[in-house]
Amino acid sequence: MLKSILLVSLGAVPGAWLRFRLINHFEPIVPAKHWATLAVNIGASFCLGLLVALNQLCLSNQLMLLLATGFLGSLSTFSTFVVELLVLLHKQAPAEALLLALASVVSGLLALELGLAIGGLQ
């Protein structure tokens, strides 16, 4: 159990750091911060699809804990997505909140499917 905790923790630190760096990089480019979050979440969904496909072939449970649960889990967080939806709703922007919600779910699923397909699972 301690080894699992350590692996998740070792993956989470660089994942959170990369999320911070990517959001700060995209923020000046996109019209609002929540679109930067969307871009990061799409990339993480794609990477998770690749990892799941590769896991079927050759990845160890320890590597999945490090990369999928730790790194990608901290790179792409559901709580940030929900907070950004709530902020839009409080700003009286329900159309943009709906667009963000739909874009996040649909693009996340498509990116995951693409990762699975490229990884050879689909």
UniProtKB/TrEMBL annotation:
Na(+) binds at residues 73, 76. It is a multi-pass membrane protein. It comes from the Bacteria. Its main location: membrane. It is found in: Cell membrane. One of its GO terms (biological process) is cellular detoxification of fluoride. Pfam families: CRCB. Keywords: Cell membrane, Ion channel, Ion transport, Membrane, Metal-binding, Sodium, Transmembrane, Transmembrane helix, Transport. One of its GO terms (molecular function) is metal ion binding. GO terms for cellular component: plasma membrane. Na(+) is not transported, but it plays an essential structural role and its presence is essential for fluoride channel function. It catalyses: fluoride(in) = fluoride(out). The chain crosses the membrane at residues 34-53, 65-87, 99-121. Fluoride-specific ion channel. Important for reducing fluoride concentration in the cell, thus reducing its toxicity. Belongs to the fluoride channel Fluc/FEX (TC 1.A.43) family. This is Fluoride-specific ion channel FluC.
